[in-house]
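Progress note, sequence design subtask.
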């Protein structure tokens, strides 16, 4: 059981680092601090070899390990996490006795963690004093909706030469069945399915192909072969549609996080403009 406890200590320590050292641009739940964050715990939860473990440190560790504020943790969770924190403190004290805190690598890690934690605290404070409004969130949602690309459904026949493609276009103009010609002549794997490419956005296709598709009306076939790096295409546009877009209330939380990130990025840009930065190679 002791071995398992030590493993839990290491896992808990890793969780603490993840929970307390998010990059400055990663707001996550930064705008929603724990309910008891405004009222730091006071007192001491344990003493290890004369070293006191403050209640506030325990609460921070508890939330990092369980993902819940101390007010929501069960007595059993609190007891288990306290044991983990005590074990971690014992291990850290052993490291101090060995002078590991004076190693350059240890100092560098401590310095980096301090920087990360301060950056996270700063972004949390900024979002608290500059909260995003519903109007801002809705505007970002509307902008995302407006930028959603149209989807297209098309068939194509891919051959090696322009002459082959031109001959196929003539057959199609004379009434030949597109799917049958695709199954017979196309070298693309879609040929066995009648050249059907399914639904796609123009951005997912190479530009000559997407340009040709965009220029077609439903039911039309390209009258000139379309060349790409894959060969020569004959394309038939079957249909177009606007993708299904989730309602605002269904994605409001995700959009709000995106709006928060944008606000933090703008704040960071302001700080960078006033900062004196010198990079050394």
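Output:
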């Amino acid at each position: 059981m002791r071995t398992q406890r030590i493993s839990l200590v290491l896992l808990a320590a890793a969780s603490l680092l993840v929970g307390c050292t998010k990059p400055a641009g990663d707001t996550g739940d930064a705008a929603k601090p724990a309910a008891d964050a405004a009222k730091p715990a006071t007192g001491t939860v344990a003493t290890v070899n004369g070293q006191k473990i403050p209640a506030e440190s325990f609460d921070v560790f508890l939330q990092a390990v369980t993902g819940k504020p101390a007010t929501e943790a069960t007595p059993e969770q609190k007891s288990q996490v306290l044991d983990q924190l005590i074990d971690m403190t014992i291990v850290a004290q052993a490291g101090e006795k060995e002078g590991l805190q004076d190693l350059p690598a240890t100092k560098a890690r401590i310095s980096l963690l301090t920087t990360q934690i301060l950056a996270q605290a700063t972004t949390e404070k900024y979002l608290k004093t500059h909260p995003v409004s519903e109007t801002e969130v809705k505007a970002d949602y509307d902008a995302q909706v407006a930028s959603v690309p149209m989807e297209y459904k098309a068939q194509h026949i891919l051959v090696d030469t322009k002459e082959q493609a031109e001959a196929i276009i003539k057959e199609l103009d004379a009434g030949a069945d597109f799917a049958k010609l695709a199954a017979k002549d196309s070298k693309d794997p879609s040929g066995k399915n009648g050249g059907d490419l399914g639904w796609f956005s123009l951005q997912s296709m190479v530009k000559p192909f997407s340009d040709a598709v965009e220029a077609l009306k439903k039911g039309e076939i390209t009258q000139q072969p379309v060349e790409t790096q894959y060969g020569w295409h004959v394309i038939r546009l079957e249909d177009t549609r606007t993708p299904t877009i989730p309602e605002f209330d269904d994605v409001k939380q995700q959009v709000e996080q995106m709006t928060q990130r944008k606000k933090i990025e703008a704040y960071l840009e302001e700080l960078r403009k006033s900062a004196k930065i010198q990079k050394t190679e």
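The chain is about 55% helix and 15% strand. Work on this subtask will continue into the next period as scheduled.
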